[in-house]
Amino acid sequence: MTHRGNRRRTALLAMGFVGALAAAAVALIAVLGFPGTGGQVDVHRVDTSPQDIREFWTPERMEKARQGDPMPVIVEE
């Protein structure tokens, strides 16, 4: 095999190794959850009353508001 062929083979092996490491990391995160979360769900409580929310969202504010990002869809398998 030529020097160029050895380089190409080494590069392909390295890319395969990096790809395998990335796949293993994704699999671990899928099973164990993201690091630091302990697999738990974060809960955020809102103390604002419905009346305060209605008073905040005046027709003028509603007209100037812009649409946010859509919520992610969770698919049960």
Describe the structure.
The structure is a single chain. With 77 residues, the chain is mostly helical. The chain has a domain at 1-35. The protein has 3 helices and no strands.
Strand proportion: under 5%
What is the helix fraction of residues, given as a range?
A: 55-70%
pLDDT < 50 runs, ≥5 residues: none
Q: Report the mean per-residue pLDDT as an integer.
A: 82
Distance between the ends: 48 Å
Structure summary, number of beta strands:
0
Treating each run of at least 4 consecutive H or I residues as one helix, how many helices?
Answer: 3
Largest sheet: none
Quaternary state, please?
single chain
Structural class: mainly alpha
What spatial form do the alpha-carbon principal axes imply?
A: elongated
Radius of gyration: 25 Å
N to C succession of SSEs = HHH
Keywords: Membrane, Transmembrane, Transmembrane helix
Transmembrane segments: 12-34
Quick tags:
77 residues, mainly alpha, 56% helix
Secondary structure elements and pairings:
Layout: H1 3-32, H2 50-56, H3 59-64
Quick overview of this protein structure:
It is built from three helices and no strands. It is an all-alpha fold.
